[in-house]
Specification:
About 50% of the residues lie in helices and about 0% in strands. It is mainly alpha-helical.
């Protein structure tokens, strides 16, 4: 079949999906962080995971 036109090639494809439940307050906080940092929700969550993982390695 081949690669679709316009497909961004990457060394680290993001092919895993995470679905979470959160309360309204947490959702509002996430939205505020996304707007302030001009990042997607996925990017903010990935950054948070990296931060938590770095703390574990200390």
């Amino acid at each position: 079949m081949g690669i679709k036109k316009g497909t961004k090639l990457t060394d680290h494809p993001k092919n895993k999906i995470l679905r979470i439940r959160m309360d309204e307050d947490t959702a509002n906080k996430l939205k505020a962080v996304c707007e302030k940092k001009q990042k997607s929700m996925s990017d903010v969550v990935r950054d948070g995971i990296e931060q938590q993982y770095a703390e574990l390695k200390k």
